[in-house]
Design the sequence.
């Protein structure tokens, strides 16, 4: 079995430890004997929509966001083909914002998103920084750290990833955090997200492998260290 | 030479108040008291910092940048001492306006007179414009600009803007790292003095992960003929004419070991064979920054060579200690670039054991995501070594190590630092060295813990 990851803009968007998500998925696959292939896909570089099981886009600085937005619009149709074929897309912070319909800054033109998520983002006046805990529908928790001023609002075709227990989440107003639409995910959680949320990491892994291998069961791993860190994060102040 | 400033009555009162406060704080055992006296003094005389520093004959030199501020200031003071200068220095690393004021007042007598040739200020990047508004800063050294502490300043561009503003206020001479494209884009309109690394000895490899940089002029990704570490190297832009400037002060043939480095230092076209009792290429850069500053201030080549050699480590920066007969190195870590460098030095020591302590207080950076950007994967080179993790975020550090490829059975989570230190020392072999890597507030805790064991760290 092989797990194929496309890390979009890996060299551009690598300042908030989002690389930890790639490391986590790769290791958790390898520990189960699954071969892993990670390709860094840069601006202007094509990614074959039939090839990859999983796409990741992280967060970056504002200046980089503009360049990325332009490139992302160009690859919107191949990315949509990939998603229609069952590929999983995980985006964090800046990447999340660009997967919605648009990002409206304080001044200057709107940044066009690619509408893979029914959501939009407007620039806010307050930077939302701190620890986050969210509760998912199945009562499990996700923990992470947010650092953003953009406020994201969800449309009717998309579900939040969870409800805010600690922190601000999408917009600091409606208690929602993140977004999920089919196999496309967006979240403001850095931390990195996946290392301390191993069950969610495995959920993404199973969903992504299903594209080529159907329903599979992953071997159980000893997650004692991960769960300890998760438990600790539940006690952190916002 | 600057003209001496006339002190006002308010300045003298401010010094008096601050000195009384500082001595009461010390008597009551309330800690180092590095900020409160400064705050009081600025209340009494808002211009006291400028007025006091204006008394020195050679003015003020500032040292800023992401990493290496304290070490560069420390090396520069070693050189200045050797060269026979007298100077005031905020050596406790209190590098915001109040801390700098407090430390300067400590150098003054009760009459507010300062008998020093110059002031050497290590200044936080964000505080530079604030200090520059009060003090005439003759020259500003910028060590490097890494993407650090994003939760504090927002973004790298913000930091660059703050430094630019700080340099612009007094049109200070900019002493810049030629090898760092992020630094070279700073302050294009002032005079510059560049320092850099020309060559390393055969077998010295680039340290850690390379970091991408973007052209300050056209935004294109920077290209390299050669990378030394991070985004440091011989760089150029393919999109425009922006490229590494030729440094006036530079090192060649750099050799590094786990504890020291040797290199040829070229100043004014002439070479000195230098030894620096610090490991890692990042410290060679700190030495070059200090050498450039010292040369500008008028130190001789010989004083620079001797000052480098005589440098003794600063509080928690590659500081070597002997505790209960055992060998310990303390190296502060606070961001991916610095941590990656520290780890690169550590793995050169085959007898290394590690204790990594991570806190997430404001002074450490509350977001610990950076642990995932640092190259802990290097540690797999140390086979079977045991690693103790401690601090408020010990559990996160344990997970980071596990995913870096360290066997989970070799990772010991001991959140309480005192207990972690005792445990790590008790299992340390006689021929082994404990590499203790704390974040900032863990370092302060460590200082107290070691003191209770009868070991004083430097500067304390």
Sequence:
């Amino acid at each position: 079995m092989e797990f194929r990851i496309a890390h979009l803009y890996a060299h551009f968007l690598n300042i908030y430890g989002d690389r930890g998500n790639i490391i986590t998925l790769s290791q958790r696959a390898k520990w189960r004997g699954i071969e892993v292939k990670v390709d860094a896909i840069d601006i202007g570089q094509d990614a074959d929509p039939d090839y990859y099981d999983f796409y990741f886009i992280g967060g970056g600085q504002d200046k980089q966001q503009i360049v990325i937005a332009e490139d992302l619009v160009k690859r919107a149709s191949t990315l949509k083909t990939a998603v229609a074929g069952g590929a999983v897309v995980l985006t964090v912070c800046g990447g999340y914002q660009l997967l919605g319909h648009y990002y409206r800054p304080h001044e200057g033109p709107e940044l066009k998103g690619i509408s893979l998520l029914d959501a939009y983002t407007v620039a806010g006046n307050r930077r939302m920084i701190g620890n986050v805990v969210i509760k998912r529908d199945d009562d499990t928790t996700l923990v992470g750290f947010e650092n953003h001023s953009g406020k994201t609002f969800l449309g009717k075709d998309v579900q939040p990833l969870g409800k805010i227990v600690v922190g601000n989440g999408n917009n600091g107003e409606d208690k929602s955090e993140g977004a999920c639409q089919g196999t496309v995910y967006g979240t403001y959680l850095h931390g990195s997200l996946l290392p301390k949320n191993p069950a969610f990491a495995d959920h993404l892994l199973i969903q992504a492998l299903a594209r080529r291998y159907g329903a599979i069961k992953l071997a159980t791993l000893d997650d004692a260290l991960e769960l300890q860190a998760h438990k600790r994060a539940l006690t952190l102040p916002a | 030479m600057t003209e001496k400033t006339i002190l006002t009555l308010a300045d003298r009162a401010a010094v008096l108040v601050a000195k009384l406060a500082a001595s009461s704080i010390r008597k009551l055992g309330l800690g180092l008291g590095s900020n409160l006296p400064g705050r009081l003094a600025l209340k009494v005389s808002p211009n006291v910092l400028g007025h006091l520093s204006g008394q020195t004959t050679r003015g003020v030199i500032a040292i800023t940048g992401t990493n290496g501020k304290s070490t560069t200031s420390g090396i520069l003071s070693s050189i200045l001492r050797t060269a026979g200068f007298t100077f005031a220095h905020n050596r406790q690393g209190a590098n915001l306006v109040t801390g700098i004021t407090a430390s300067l007042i400590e150098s003054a007598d009760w009459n507010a007179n300062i008998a020093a040739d110059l002031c050497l200020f290590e200044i936080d990047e964000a505080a530079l414009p604030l200090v520059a508004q009060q003090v005439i800063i003759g020259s500003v050294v910028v060590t490097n600009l890494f993407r650090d502490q994003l939760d504090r300043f927002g973004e790298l561009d913000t930091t660059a803007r703050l430094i630019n503003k700080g340099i612009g206020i007094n049109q200070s001479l900019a002493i810049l790292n030629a090898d760092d494209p992020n630094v070279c884009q700073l302050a294009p309109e002032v005079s510059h003095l560049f320092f850099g690394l020309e060559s390393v000895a055969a077998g010295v490899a680039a340290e850690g992960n390379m970091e991408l940089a973007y052209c300050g002029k056209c935004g294109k990704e920077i290209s390299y003929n050669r990378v030394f570490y991070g985004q440091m190297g011989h760089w150029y832009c393919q999109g425009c004419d922006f490229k590494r400037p030729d440094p006036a002060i530079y090192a060649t043939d750099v050799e590094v070991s786990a504890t020291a480095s040797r290199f040829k230092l070229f100043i004014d076209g002439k070479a000195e064979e230098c030894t620096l009792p610090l490991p890692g290429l990042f410290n060679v850069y700190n030495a070059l920054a200090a050498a450039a500053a010292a040369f500008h201030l008028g130190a001789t080549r010989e004083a620079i060579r001797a000052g480098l050699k005589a440098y003794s480590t600063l509080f928690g920066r590659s500081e070597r200690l002997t505790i209960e007969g055992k060998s310990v190195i303390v190296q502060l870590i606070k961001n991916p670039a610095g941590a990656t460098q520290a780890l690169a030095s550590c793995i050169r020591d085959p007898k290394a054991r590690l204790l990594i302590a991570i806190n997430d207080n404001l002074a450490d950076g509350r977001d610990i995501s950076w642990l995932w950007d640092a190259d802990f994967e290097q540690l797999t080179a140390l086979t079977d070594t045991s690693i103790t993790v401690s601090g408020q975020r010990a559990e996160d550090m344990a997970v980071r190590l596990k995913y870096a490829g360290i066997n989970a059975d070799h990772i010991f989570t001991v959140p309480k630092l005192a207990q972690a230190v005792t445990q790590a020392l008790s299992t340390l072999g006689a021929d082994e060295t404990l590499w203790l890597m704390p974040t900032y507030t863990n370092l302060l805790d460590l200082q107290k813990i070691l003191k209770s064991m009868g070991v004083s760290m430097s500067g304390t």
